[in-house]
Structures are given as C-alpha cells and as structure tokens.
Amino acid sequence: MYRRLLKRLNEQKVRKADEFKLEISKDLSVMNQTIQDIVGESDDIVQRNFKIGANLKASLYFVDGLAFDSGIEDRIIKPLIYFAETNQEFSTDQLLEHLLTEVVTFIELSVKQTFDEAILNLMSGETLLVIDGIDKLVLFETRQFNQRGIEEPESEVIVRGPRDGFNEVLHTNVMLIRRRLRDPNLTVQFGQLGRRSKTDFALVYVKGITNMDLVEEIRYRLSCLDEDITMETGVIEQYIEENVLSPFPQILRTERPDKTINALSSGKVVVVLDGTPFILMAPITFSDLMKATEDNYDRWHISSFTRMLRYLAAFMAVFLPGLYIAMVSYHQGMIPTVFALSIAGTREGVPFPGFIEAFLMEITFELLREAGIRLPRPIGQTIGIVGGLVIGDAAVRAGIVSPVMVIVVAITAIASFAIPAYNVSITFRLLRFLVMISAAIFGLFGIVITYILINIHLVGLRSFGSYYTAPFAPYKFGEWLDLMIRAPLILLKNRPSEPRTLDQKKKNM
C-alpha cells in the first residue's frame, strides 16, 4: 500500500516537471524573468533587487500580507547588504553555505533545486531569495498569520474542562495538541491537499500506540484525494470515509483539544487542516458518538447516569414520533384506556390522520431549526423559541394538530439535542422520517422491521477497518465498563479493542 503511495507521488512529481519544463539558471536576469512568467501579473508579489556586499546581485520575492515584512528587512536584507567580503576564495556552493550559516540570522530556511517546490512555498508565505551565479533557490520561513484568538468552541458546549478550542491556523492547532501531549512519540507529518489550493494539513498519531497499517491507510486515502480546492475537513471526510451511502458518520470531528488528546491516546489518527477549526479523528465506533469528554471529568455515578440518558434520548429521537403514529393509527388497544380516551378527545376535530399530523409538525420544526441556524445568533435563538411556541399554540387552536402531537414533537426535539455529536444527531433526524413512514404503512411491525434493518446496516459498517458496533458486536463484555455506563477510572485499565492498537494497556495497576 505504501509503495502505491510513493509511486503516485513520484508520478505527480514527473507530471509537474513536465508541466513546468523550467530549469534553474545561474543568470539572475533569466531567473527573474522565469519567476515573473510563473506568477503572472500578481501585484501582491513583491520583488526587491539588491546587492550582496559590493558586487553580487540578488533578488528577493515575497507575498505581501503573508510574509513578515520587518523580519525580512532586518534578518535577511540588511545582513546581506552589509556583508563584508573576505580575501578567502569561495566556490559557488561554499559561498551559499557561508551566507546562510554565518551572515543571515534566520533559523528556518531551506534550499530548493526545482521551481515547482520553490514557487509553492513562496505562495504560502515564505520568502524566496535568488542569487546571481548560484543555480539554487533559497527559501526563508517568514509566514505570518492574522488569526482568530484561542476561544471556547462554539459547536461543542463545555460543561467542565478546558475552555480553549482550535482556530483556523494549522500550526496553532498542532501547538495546542503538543501542549497537552508531550510524549516524544507524538508524530506530526505535514502535507498538502488540493491541486490549486495546496492547503496544508497535518497527520497526527502516537507512535507505539497507533497501528501503522491504519496510518498508512489514511495517508493513502488522503493522497488519492484529487480536488482543485480543499477548504474544509468536511470535504476530506466525504472522500475518505468507508461507505458514502451510509447516513452514519464514520469519522468524528471536534473543535476541542482535550477530546483530540483522548482520541490519540486511544490509538486513533487525527487530521488537522489549515483554514478550519474542525479536526477529524478516525476510526470511530457508534459508542464514540455517544460519549462526551466531560464523562471523564465527573464522578462515575454522574457520568453513567448522563450516558444512559443519551442512549434513551437517541432512541426517542428516532422512534418516538413513529410509535405515536403506530399507536394512534393501528394499535389503540395497546394504549391504557384512560390515556387512549384522552388522546381521542384531543384529536377530536383534527382533519388529518396521525402520519400527516406528525409529518407537518416535524417539517415545521426542522424549518424553524434551520432558520435559527442561518439567522444571526440573537435573532436565531428568538426565532427558534418564539416560532415554536407561537406556531405550536396556533396549530392547536386552529385544530390542525392535537396537543399530544405537539408534546411528542417537542420531546423528540429535546432528545435530539442531547446527543453529543452533532453529525449523528442529524442522522437520527433523517432516520426519524423513515421510521414514521414505516409506522404509517405497517404500524409497529414497520418500526420493528426498520429497527432490524438499521442494526443490520450498523453491524456491517466499518470505519477504516474497525467494527462500527464494537463492543456490542463483536461482543466484548470487558469493554462494557466504558460503554452505556462509565465505571470508576481505576477499573479502566485497557484501551478499546477498536481500533486495534500496538499497546493495549492504558495503565499498569
């Protein structure tokens, strides 16, 4: 697999070389003309011509706004201009080495021998130095980033734990991971995605814990991603996931560094992309979607109770409207008599059957939820609350829906908000409509059939080779201590069996 990756990368290099067909010259004027031909008419590419010492001509290029201007002037141009020539005779390579090691006071620099590498680094904020008589290109790490501050994540509400979250700068996000996990085995490998955007990304894993077959599989899938522009990790997720037809997420995303550290310590691989605060973690299981990072921060009694509530909420978010439709339409005899009479009384005068009634209310609530997301935050929250109250009350007064239906829809919505992973809560919302249709056609039999089909799909689903339903299936009773309940931390000695890790022991006691 790794050989295929290397072959693909070599083929890409050959194609690039054939595409540019540019050779580095020792003539500075030829080099300047070549660079001008490549960058075109971009006014933000700054060119500065100067002399090194008394006679040696040089040109310097950087992108205005991406490079650190004062650092370029103080640490590159000034030392080179004031370079005092010695009586020592230098060859071309010796002169370049002398300038870079004893004259320029820059820590991060590199020497390139091809235009495709040099121009790519120039466009990402580095400074390019071309010297007359030297057929090599020198690049200085002068990138600066105007970034959003490290703030509390907006998409993941933090009850207890660190309040910092990832931002849009790759190196800042890697720093937040390094700050918490100071293990020298923490490995960070950089690369680029997008044929035109050339977006930087980092592949992060812990050597000695993470299975290297998993690392190479994810690296290979990333290398096969052939897009012009890669701006968000959601694009990567759609390309590298195992089953594109499944509504269930096979990769977990987060804005929280502490959640990322937990994933790394469990043998997962993390993908960090420049330009987005959302990072990807793979592989995952269904139980990962039902866990919150705060579960490890609270005492085990509280964490176990809240975790069981989440599983109950997941069931209600998917099946509650369908159960209402089945009971009202087909199985009235299964409802207690007093409650059945109460429901019948509230439905008196409602012109629609149970399915149409539930479908209208669910669609209305989804519209309100989507409108609340798209509007500015203060207005969106008002629309969601006031709209739900006004429309629900007006629909009941007009006799379009029954009060019980409004209660069922409200409980279902609250249950869907209790799921920690937002992407799986959307999946539950979609499955809810499938369950409602099955209940309207076949009653409880339809709900049971749909439940069986969902489980068949989940059992057959894989996330980068890991069983999606582990430890339910395959059955691992020892891991149930951290499944629907969270046992005391002193009893959680091993890492989960999925993904397979090189070091199964989490602690030695």
UniProtKB/TrEMBL annotation:
* Segments forming a coiled coil: none
Q: Name one Pfam family in it.
A: GerA
In which compartments does the protein localize?
A: Cell membrane; Membrane
Query: What InterPro entries does the entry give?
Result: Spore_Ger, UPF0353/GerABKA_families
Q: Which residue spans traverse the membrane?
A: 309-330, 404-424, 430-454
**Major location, coarse class?**
membrane
| Bilayer topology | Multi-pass membrane protein
Cite the entry's keywords alphabetically: Membrane, Transmembrane, Transmembrane helix
State the family named in the UniProt similarity comment for this chain.
Answer: Belongs to the GerABKA family.
The molecule here is called Spore germination protein
Its organism's taxonomic lineage begins at: Bacteria, Bacillati, Bacillota, Bacilli, Bacillales
